[in-house]
């Protein structure tokens, strides 16, 4: 009975994420509806991005300069040219903004980019699974219910605009969130020989044309 009472008092926080646009360059929209009023608290979504997808730190810095997105990326150095099989996972702490249409609702969007994957056999697509974000609250001037929230190990301030420390909290009774799926186009492994042959042929032809032009129009002393 005690467990049921605690779960009833701690109403679930709902989280939805949506991938906007098409192709390799998308926008990830995160929407959160808290189970209780959190006036005066900072709300953030902590996302673990698998190696198949990344956030460009230079693009993120530009967005933050224009006050369009507030986020912290771990690590803050990202190889944006690496393919999926040579990349590593990232952690993104995305600060959410209040939704004017709902007092307990928050939302934010961030650009994400898919990485190139290895060619696959028998399929034109690779799947990148995005786990549901973890909702975090940072209440520097108010207190959260100990039955519903517990301290989280997040070493970052309550806002991306300040360096003062703050204690983040995460929900104790986390509901079953849904995952999102990003499908990335990949080449067929069966075409590897054909692609290599055409690449070598094209490279040789272009090199020959450049050499012929250099011999015809070049001035050699």
TrEMBL record:
One Pfam match, given by its short name, reads PIG-X
UniProt topology in membrane: Single-pass membrane protein
The keyword Glycoprotein is assigned to this record:
yes
Q: Which InterPro entries match?
A: PIG-X/PBN1, PIGX
Q: Where in the cell is it found?
A: Endoplasmic reticulum membrane
Please explain the role this protein plays, according to its UniProt record.
Answer: Stabilizing subunit of the glycosylphosphatidylinositol-mannosyltransferase I complex which catalyzes the transfer of the first mannose, via an alpha-1,4 bond from a dolichol-phosphate-mannose (Dol-P-Man) to the glucosaminyl acyl phosphatidylinositol (GlcN-(acyl)PI) intermediate to generate alpha-D-Man-(1->4)-alpha-D-GlcN-(1->6)-(1-radyl,2-acyl-sn-glycero-3-phospho)-2-acyl-inositol and participates in the sixth step of the glycosylphosphatidylinositol-anchor biosynthesis. Probably acts by stabilizing the mannosyltransferase PIGM.
Task: Please report the name of this protein according to its UniProt entry.
Answer: Phosphatidylinositol-glycan biosynthesis class X protein
Q: What is the lineage of its organism?
A: Eukaryota, Metazoa, Chordata, Craniata, Vertebrata
């Amino acid at each position: 009975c005690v467990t049921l009472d605690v779960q009833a008092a701690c109403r679930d926080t709902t989280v939805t994420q949506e991938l906007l646009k098409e192709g390799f360059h998308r926008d990830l929209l995160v929407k959160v509806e808290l189970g209780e009023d959190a006036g005066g608290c900072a709300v953030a979504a902590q996302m673990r991005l698998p190696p198949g997808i990344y956030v460009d730190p230079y693009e993120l810095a530009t967005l933050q300069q224009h006050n369009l997105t507030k986020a912290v990326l771990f690590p803050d150095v990202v190889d944006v040219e690496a393919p999926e099989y040579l990349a590593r996972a990232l952690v993104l702490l995305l600060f959410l903004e209040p939704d004017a249409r709902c007092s307990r609702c928050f939302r934010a969007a961030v650009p994400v980019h898919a990485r190139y994957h290895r060619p696959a056999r028998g399929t034109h697509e690779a799947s990148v699974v995005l786990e549901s974000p973890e909702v975090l609250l940072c209440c520097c001037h108010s207190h959260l219910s100990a039955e519903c929230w517990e301290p989280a190990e997040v070493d970052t301030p309550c806002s991306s605009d300040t360096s003062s420390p703050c204690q983040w909290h995460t929900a104790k009774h986390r509901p079953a969130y849904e995952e999102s799926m990003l499908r990335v186009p990949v080449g067929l492994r069966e075409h590897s020989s054909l692609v290599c042959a055409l690449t070598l042929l094209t490279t040789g032809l272009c090199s020959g044309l450049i050499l012929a032009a250099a011999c015809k129009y070049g001035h050699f002393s």
